[in-house]
Design brief:
about 280 residues, mainly alpha
Length: about 280
């Protein structure tokens, strides 16, 4: 059938790229350049550990860290601790980001509402989340709710402020054009203000997601008997440097995955917006 269509002058059927060109496309210079620094750090780590530039107690060889990783998976329920941390981060991020978006949009659209919130929010914002932690523990105990609340508070203010700033930074010419087209208030918000503010909001959500993941480690380290933060502080106390490095690598890789996920979401949401690629 495809041959007949081609004989009649139709377009030839699309053929998938051969394997070699596809591999070349995947392993392009732009993709590989990001691996140069990690490989260099790994090589330096191996040389420093094998030559004992640093005491092996404090810097084990990479192979020992890999062995510790599989040991923690099999004997210490590393996946369970990872799941606990991820659940805390997810809940804290969702609660904090949702509240920030709702109140940020409200404050951005209403100067009076912003004036109502600003004195209180500006005062609370300057108190670090960890400083709130002892008081929150007194209220809620050492369980998950206290950690979720600390994470949500830390996520809230970056998203709130960037949402407010994003709305207030909408080009005045867009507003004047909307007024000339006699758009209603709802149409102005939905078709002009929110789309124009979305790039700033998406950047704040990406930053807040990474902040939430970093903060859960501190919260779990200060209180609790499970989670990656607990494992880190326990390994430090027992001088289990290989396990400490396992947790650090896992936290770094998961943080990278969270950031890449938010970046891809940002690109998808803002696919209509073209900018400088560098």
């Amino acid at each position: 059938m495809n041959t007949a269509v081609a004989d009649l002058g139709g377009p030839p059927p699309a053929r998938p790229l051969p394997l070699l060109p596809r591999l070349r496309q995947w392993f392009s210079a732009g993709r590989l350049i990001g691996l140069v620094l990690p490989v260099a750090v790994l090589l330096l780590w191996q040389v420093a550990a094998s030559r004992e530039w640093i005491d092996p107690v404090f810097l084990p060889e990479p192979i020992r860290v890999v062995q510790a990783f599989f040991k923690m998976l099999a004997e210490q329920k590393l996946l369970l601790d990872f799941g606990v941390s991820l659940a805390l981060v997810s809940q804290g991020f969702l609660y904090g980001a949702f509240a920030a978006l709702v109140l940020g949009v409200g404050a951005g659209l209403s100067k009076r509402f912003e004036q109502f919130l600003s004195p209180t929010f500006d005062t609370i914002r300057h108190i670090p989340g960890i400083a709130w932690f002892p008081l929150i523990v007194l209220w809620l105990g050492l369980g998950a709710p206290a950690k979720i609340l600390v994470i949500a508070k830390s996520v809230f203010f970056p998203v709130f402020l960037n949402t407010l700033q994003g709305i207030r930074s909408v080009d005045r010419h867009y507003i004047e054009l909307a007024e000339a087209l006699t758009l209603t208030r709802w149409q102005l918000v939905r078709k002009v203000i929110l789309p124009a503010a979305t790039p700033t909001i998406m950047v704040s959500l990406r930053y807040a997601a990474g902040l939430a993941w970093a903060l859960v480690v501190v919260a779990e380290g200060l209180s609790g008997l499970e989670g990656l933060g607990f494992l880190i502080f326990r390994a430090q106390g027992l001088l289990l440097t290989d396990q400490l490095l396992v947790c650090m690598v896992v936290i770094g890789l998961v943080g990278f995955a969270i950031d890449r996920t938010m970046y891809l979401l940002q690109r998808r949401v803002l696919r209509w917006k073209q900018g400088f690629e560098g």
